[in-house]
Amino acid sequence: MSVFRKLCVLAILISLSITSSCSKKILPTSEVNFLSGNDGTITMRAVGNGANQQEASSEAEKNAINVLLFRGLSESEQKIALIGTNESEEIEKHKQYFEKFYAQKRYKTFIMSSIPVSDFAKQNGGIKSLTLDIKVNLVALRKDLEQNNIIRKFGF
Q: Using the 8-state DSSP alphabet, how is residue 107 labeled?
């Protein structure tokens, strides 16, 4: 094989490698930022989208809780996820717990306050959203996860 042909084959392989590794994956995103935290609580600013204000408020609260459970907030005392980063695997593994947690709105029992800081209005792209400051009882949430065997107690 000539040098030119070898270079062409190499160039094709490199371009295929780059193209396949850059495939677009749509990941769920949530707009949640750390505001403050002390005495076992954490306050976050979260954005929720919805057809009405109540739906957007619920989504913002779920987004805030999900960040604590599956991502963590780097600026806060809760730098790492409470449960783990593989959200779908953890939800599947503890299906009964998360069914109650979300469908029966148990997550709301850990929210100490949820205060709107913006009007419910259309944003860029025509999606209606609402921004809330959400204060979560982190100690109670962690204890509930421990009691339901979702996470182990610290140090055990």
A: G
